[in-house]
Amino acid sequence: MIGAAIVGLKRMKMGVKALLMVACALLAVPLAAQQRGPLPPPPPGTVVPSSVSSDSAKTNASRQETSSHITNEPPAIPVEQIIQKFTQHEEDFRKERDNYTYTQIFVFQTIDEDGRPDGEYRLTSDILFTPAGKRYERVVDAPAPTLSRISMSQQDFDDIEKVWPLVLTPDELPKYDVKYVGREQVDEVGTYVFDITPKKLEKSLRYLQGRIWVEDRDFQIVKTRGKATGLLKKKEDQAFPTFETFRENIEGHYWFPTYTRADDILRFKSGQDVHIRLSVRYQNYKRFGSTIKIGKATQVDPEKP
């Protein structure tokens, strides 16, 4: 992930230069103070993760886990029907989410041996509509990045947009092998658990290799965990973190992504290991032309053509 490890002064300068170019292209702002300490926990109401890495366990030792273990209990209906139902609901959800505005806050940090951030990339943007109904992204805040040991790659930005908030529609389903694992109670939500693996990696496309949790009454994905994967060039030295994405129910209809997090050690082919921590918050969901929202509402300036 998040770019290839930079070995030597020359590669370090190239990585920093690339990061500064990305930030400046998005929005020119002054250097901001670096956030210290662990990233905040998921917002209230999201499904609590069933497992965390050893580093996450140390960071979030005070957080209470309320999930149960996965059982091999058979599903109430045939597995094929469950898959058909939840992928169709994903298609309906995809269309519905395309009608919403929201704010996306991405924070990525490298962590030193003392468990403190020693570099950061931060980007806050609003997903909005023009008066004519055309969807666009407006960057709200993009401080100059302070990363030095690794850099962001195009694959990372693709993962933020498509893999971490995975939407597994009927059109996407043929690309994956989907295996029923069992059932698990997560908080007060009963779920069916599936492992998914891409059947074939194709150039320029990104996939999820991991696990999804499907709510057992309305058949909607409520949680995703795994790694993003795809074809890389032989000389590319990249590593990608294990992440978890949690969804929250909006007005009893759809489960929207509200939080993605990762706390992992990236191990590069060069032999360099980098501890990283990241989060993506999706908040202020508001249907275009309505008042439905999640999180604290913020005032948005009038849209420009």
Describe this structure in words.
With 305 residues, the protein is of the alpha+beta class. The protein has one domain. It has 4 helices and 10 strands; from the N terminus they run αααβββαβββββββ. The chain has helices at residues 9-26, 54-59, 79-97, 154-163, and strands at 100-111, 117-129, 135-141, 176-186, 189-198, 207-215, 221-229, 243-250, 254-267, 273-287. Strands 3-2-1-10-9-8-7-6-5-4 form a 10-stranded antiparallel sheet. Strand 4 and strand 5 (189-198) form a beta hairpin. The radius of gyration is 20 Å and the shape is globular.
Name its key features.
305 residues, alpha+beta, 10-stranded antiparallel beta sheet, 4 helices, 10 strands
Secondary structure elements and their pairing?
Elements: H1 9-26, H2 54-59, H3 79-97, E1 100-111, E2 117-129, E3 135-141, H4 154-163, E4 176-186, E5 189-198, E6 207-215, E7 221-229, E8 243-250, E9 254-267, E10 273-287
Antiparallel strand pairs: 1-2, 1-10, 2-3, 4-5, 5-6, 6-7, 7-8, 8-9, 9-10
